[in-house]
């Protein structure tokens, strides 16, 4: 069975954004959500892959206890924040756009926000690929501490 490729979310977002048949607010909100999940899943997979290389036991804990729980977003954000504050800020902005688009039905979401979401997702994916591997290795002890803290929370529930 082939795994779904999360980068297809960003491709879909771009297609929907540029398709003149779909210029309604529902489409704009969908573009924002798909842009966020493309970038978030890229960050999550980056964390998983680096953990697997640097600490297989911690990777296994992440797979078994963090991924299946709702705290995966929090955990990935904490790790990204530990490595690079600017990337965490961008991921936070993109997350806020997504939350607003998904849950704030009383406000109008303008097309400019969808364009911003696509741009943020593209920047995040590029910067994760180019900047984080070396930084991740330097911060592995802090990352282990974050993981242990998150694992303790999960195991208590």
Find the count of extended strands (DSSP E, 2+ residues). Answer: 0
Distance between the termini: 32 Å
Tell me what portion of residues adopts beta-strand conformation: under 5%
Described by strand count, sense and barrel closure, the largest sheet is:
none
Shape descriptor reads: elongated
Order of helices and strands: HHHHHHH
> How many discrete structural domains?
1
Q: What is the helical fraction, as a range of percent?
A: over 70%
Report the mean per-residue pLDDT as an integer. Answer: 88
Rg value: 17 Å
Uncertain segments of ≥5 residues (pLDDT<50)? none
Q: What's the total helix number?
A: 7
In terms of structural class, how would the helical and strand content be classed? mainly alpha
Kindly describe this structure:
- With 157 residues, the protein is mainly α.
- The protein has one domain (7-156).
- The protein has seven helices and no strands.
- It is elongated and about 50 Å long.
What is the secondary structure topology, with strand pairs?
Layout: H1 7-18, H2 25-54, H3 56-66, H4 72-83, H5 85-103, H6 111-138, H7 140-156
Helix pairs in contact: 1-2, 1-6, 2-3, 2-4, 2-5, 2-6, 3-7, 4-5, 4-7, 5-6
């Amino acid at each position: 069975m082939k795994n779904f490729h999360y980068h297809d979310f960003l491709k879909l977002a771009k297609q929907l954004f540029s398709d003149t048949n779909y210029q309604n607010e529902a489409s704009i909100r969908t573009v924002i959500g798909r842009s966020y999940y493309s970038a978030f899943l890229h960050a999550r997979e980056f964390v998983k892959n680096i953990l697997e290389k640097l600490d297989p036991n911690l990777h296994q804990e992440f797979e078994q206890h963090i991924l299946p729980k709702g705290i995966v977003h929090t955990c990935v954000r904490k790790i990204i924040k530990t490595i690079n504050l600017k990337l965490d800020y961008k991921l936070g902005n993109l997350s806020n756009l997504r939350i607003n688009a998904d849950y704030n039905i009383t406000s109008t979401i303008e097309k400019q926000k969808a364009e911003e979401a696509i741009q943020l997702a593209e920047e995040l994916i590029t910067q994760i690929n180019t900047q984080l591997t070396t930084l991740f290795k330097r911060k592995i002890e802090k990352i282990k501490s974050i993981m242990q803290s998150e694992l303790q929370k999960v195991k208590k529930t």
